[in-house]
Design a protein that fits this description.
This protein is an alpha/beta fold and about 300 residues long. It has helices at about 35-50, 75-85, 135-145, 160-175, 175-195, 225-240, 265-285; strands spanning about 55-60, 90-95, 115-120, 130-135, 200-205, 210-215, 255-260. It has 2 domains: about 5-175, 3-Layer(aba) Sandwich (Aspartate Aminotransferase, domain 2); about 175-285, Aspartate Aminotransferase, domain 1 (Alpha-Beta Complex), CATH 3.90.1150.10. The protein is built from 7 helices and 7 strands. Strands 1-2-3-4 form a 4-stranded mixed β-sheet. Strands 5-6-7 form a 3-stranded antiparallel β-sheet. Strand 1 (about 55-60), helix 2 (about 75-85) and strand 2 (about 90-95) form a beta-alpha-beta unit. Helix 5 packs parallel to helix 7 (about 265-285) and helix 6 crosses helix 7. The longest helix has 22 residues, at about 175-195.
Amino acid sequence: MGGKFKSVPGSGLPGIAYIPAPYAYRSPFKDDENNMACFRQGLEIINWTTTGKPAAIILEVVMSVGGMIVPSREYVQAVRAWCNQTGALMIVDEAQSGVGRTGKWFAVEHFGVVPDIITTSKSLGGGVPLSGVTTTPEIADRVAELGYHQSSSHTDDPFLAAVALANIEILEREGLVQNAERQGRYLKGALEQLKAEHEILGDVRGLGLMLGIEIVVDKASKTPSAGHASAISQYCRDHGLLLGHRPTGAVSGNIIRILPPLILHRQEADEALSILNDAIIHAQKTVMPKITNGTAWM
C-alpha cells in the first residue's frame, strides 16, 4: 500500500522491494484475471531493483487491510516455484487469515502450496495478544546453528501457550473451521446475488468467513465510492450489524470487510444479509456520487 501508509515516520525498511498487488478487479494489465501479468511485472521489479535473489518474499494470501484482495491459485503457485528456483524463503502472513477463518486451518492451503514460514497472531489467541512463527525443522535447525536467538518478555509464556491450545481445542471440538467454510460459501453466494441486483456493488471476494465487497459509483466506470460505503456501514451499524469499514481506510475507503465470528449460524447470516441489502438500497437513494482520488483509472 502507498499514500499515507508510506508517510509515517520510520515506515518501511531498507533493502525491501515492493511488487504490485495481484488485484484482479483493478489490474493495470490487460487480460490479467489470473494475476500472472502482475506476477511477471513483480519479477521485473525484483530483477531491476535487487540482486535478483532476495532472502525471502512475504505475502498475505488474503490481503485484508489492503482491500480483501485474493490472488489466483496460479499466482501463489508461481511465487512458490520462483522461491524454489532462487532459494528465497516463502513467508506467508496468516495473522488474520490463519487458524480457521477461511474454512481451512491456514488460508495458504487453498492454493496447494507449502510455505517455508507461517506467521500467526490475532486468531491464534482468540482475543488474547499472542503470536507465533512456524517453520520447517531444517530452517529452525539452521538458524539455531547460526546462533540466532529471539527473546522478549513473554516469549514462551506458558499462559499464552495454554490460551492458544485451548482455542485450537475449541475450534476442533465444535467444528468451527468446517462451519467457516460452510457459512462462508453461503454468504459469498448471497453477496454475489446482491452484486447482480445492485449497481454500486462492484466486486465480491474472499475465502470462508473472510469476505469483502467493493463499492463503486457504477459497474461500468468502477469509480470507487467511499461515500456509498460509509452510508452502508453507518446504516448497518444503526441497525445492529457491525462491518469492517473506515472512510479513510485502504483503497480509498470504498472496501467493506465482512468478518463474522466462526460460530456464525445460518439464521444470523440471513439477518445480516437482509440488513446489508437494505443498507445498499438506502445508500443508492441518499448518496450523490462523488469522484475521489483512488484507483478508478484501472
